[in-house]
C-alpha cells in the first residue's frame, strides 16, 4: 500500500463506522421512540462512540489480527482442506462460517460468566441494564477482540469465501444491535432457534442468570440447557458469587 492510499483507507474506515451507526439509528431509534415512548432509553454519546469505533476501526484491527494468525497457522494445515472448502457452494460456506462463529460466541460468552479473569472484561457489557440499540457495543476491548477474532478465525483458516465471512459479520453486527434494542419483540417458538430481543433482554436481567448466552442461534442454548423463555416467570440459574451481574 502506497502512502497516498493510507489517508483514503483511514477515511474510508472512519466513514464505514459512521454509516453503520446511521443505519442502526435510522432503523432502531424511531422504533424505540414509537413503540416504547417515554420508556425508551435515550442514546448516550459514549455508547455511540463505542458503536462507531468497534464497527469501524475495531473490525479492521480484528481483521488484521485474524489475517496474521491465519497466515501463521495455515501452513500447518493439510492443503486438501482448503481445496475441499473452495469447491463447496457459497451458501454452504456461509452456513458453516455462521455455525463455527456462533459456537465460539456461545462458548466464550458462557466462559466469561464463569471465569473471573474474563468476567472482569465482560462485566463492562453488563453495565447495560436499560436495553437500547445505541449501547449494543458497550464492551471492553479485550472482550470485543476475543469474540470477533475467535468467531471468524476458523473460517479464515479453512479458506472459506471471504464474501460469506463479510456477509456474516455485517448481519451479525446489525442483529446484535437489534437484540440490545428496547423493543418488545419475540419470535414465539422460533426464539428457541434464533434469539429475539426479549430472549436477550433476559440475559441482562437480574432475574435470569446463567441463561441465554447465544448470539444469534439460541438453539445452542436449548441444546446446552441454558435457554430460558421470555415467558418464564421463575428465577433460574445462579452464577458464582464473585461473578454477579450489576
Q: Rg from C-alpha positions?
A: 19 Å
Number of strands: 0
What fraction of the residues are assigned to beta strands by DSSP? under 5%
Largest sheet composition: none
Q: Characterize the overall form.
A: globular
H-E string: HHHHHHHHH
Helix content: 55-70%
- Would you tell me the overall average pLDDT? 86
Termini separation comes to 46 Å
Q: What's the helix count?
A: 9
Q: Regions with pLDDT < 50 over 5+ consecutive residues?
A: 233-242
Structural class: mainly alpha
Report on this structure.
With 246 residues, this protein is mostly helical. The chain has nine helices and no strands. It is globular and about 55 Å long. Mean pLDDT is 86; it is low at 233-242.
Task: Write a short abstract of this structure.
The protein has 246 residues and is mainly α. Helix content is 61%, strand content 0%.
Search tags:
mainly alpha; 246 residues
Task: Give the helix/strand layout.
Elements: H1 5-36, H2 45-74, H3 79-86, H4 90-114, H5 116-122, H6 141-158, H7 162-179, H8 197-203, H9 219-223
Amino acid at each position: 500500500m502506497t502512502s497516498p492510499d493510507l489517508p483514503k483507507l483511514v477515511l474510508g474506515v472512519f466513514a464505514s463506522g459512521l454509516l453503520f451507526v446511521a443505519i442502526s439509528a435510522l432503523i432502531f431509534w424511531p422504533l424505540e421512540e414509537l413503540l416504547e415512548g417515554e420508556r425508551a432509553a435515550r442514546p448516550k454519546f459514549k455508547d455511540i462512540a463505542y458503536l462507531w469505533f468497534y464497527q469501524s476501526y475495531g473490525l479492521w484491527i480484528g481483521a488484521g489480527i485474524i489475517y496474521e494468525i491465519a497466515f501463521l497457522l495455515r501452513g500447518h494445515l493439510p492443503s486438501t482442506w482448503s481445496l475441499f472448502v473452495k469447491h463447496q457452494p457459497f451458501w454452504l460456506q456461509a452456513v458453516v462460517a455462521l455455525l463455527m462463529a456462533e459456537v465460539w460466541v456461545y462458548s466464550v460468552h458462557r466462559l466469561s460468566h464463569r471465569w473471573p479473569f474474563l468476567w472482569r472484561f465482560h462485566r463492562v457489557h453488563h453495565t447495560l441494564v436499560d436495553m437500547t440499540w445505541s449501547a449494543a457495543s458497550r464492551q471492553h476491548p479485550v472482550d470485543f477482540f476475543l469474540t470477533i477474532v475467535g468467531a471468524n478465525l476458523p473460517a479464515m483458516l479453512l479458506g472459506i469465501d471471504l464474501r460469506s465471512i463479510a456477509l456474516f459479520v455485517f448481519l451479525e453486527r446489525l442483529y446484535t444491535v437489534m437484540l440490545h434494542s428496547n423493543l418488545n419483540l419475540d419470535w414465539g417458538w422460533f426464539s428457541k432457534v434464533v434469539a429475539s430481543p426479549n430472549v436477550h433482554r433476559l440475559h441482562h436481567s437480574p432475574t435470569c442468570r446463567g441463561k441465554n448466552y447465544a448470539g444469534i442461534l439460541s438453539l445452542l442454548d436449548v441444546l446446552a440447557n441454558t435457554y430460558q423463555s421470555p415467558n418464564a416467570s421463575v428465577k433460574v440459574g445462579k452464577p458464582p458469587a464473585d461473578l454477579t451481574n450489576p
